[in-house]
Amino acid sequence: MRDRGRTRGAVAGAAAAMLLAGGGLVACSANANSVDATGGGGYGFVQQAPGQDFVEPGKRREPPSMAGETLDGEQLDLASLRGRPVVLNFWASWCAPCRAETPGLVTLADENKDVAFVGVNVKDEPSSARAFDRDFKVTYPSIVDRVGTLAAGWPISIGLPSTVVLDGQGRLAARFTGGVVPEELTAVLGRLRTEA
Predict the structure, then answer these.
(1) How is 147-185 classified by DSSP, letter by letter?
(2) For the segment 104-142, what is each residue's pLDDT rounded down to a tens digit?
(3) Whole-model pTM above 0.85?
(4) N or C: which end of the chain has fewer CB within 10 A?
(5) Could you give the CA distance from residue 19 to residue 13 in angstroms, rounded to a whole number?
(6) What separation in angstroms does the CA of 38 have from each of 30, 41, 136, 156, 158?
């Protein structure tokens, strides 16, 4: 019995070592109930529902910087979007839950012109990401995060997709771990509008 436990531990340890040797863990989070193990790095997130966190206005903090080249070759800096809420969606073309949530995000972006929608394309091939945008008729820009260094600085889970909402002052207001559904995101945006 004790040898069986050692064998399982050795196998688990070897698997973890192989994953870490491969440059870090990146996984597609198919479960919206998954929880960010980092706890948000002290950003004041309070869980509202499984996979959904919110920060009250008086406790909000500035996010890490986010700037870079978009899939269209333009430069974009989130700081330039201050003055209105921002929905920042971390995604990849190879992520099935990302594909499932994108039609809802595109619809919300079209219906909420007072909100800036921005994608962050993480660890993806540019041609695949552009094809994804064409297939889903994505109307908002996506910053290219080729090796994941931009995403690594944000208080999100290691799996994709993840979505962060910034208030009009550019502060972290909410986040969604796993796929976001339009109704949940609409509720958060409505809450931010009542604060203004």
Answers:
(1) TSHHHHTSS--SEE-EEEEE-TTS-EEEEEESPPPHHHH
(2) 999 999 999 999 999 999 999 999 999 999 999 999 999
(3) no
(4) N
(5) 10
(6) 18, 6, 31, 8, 9
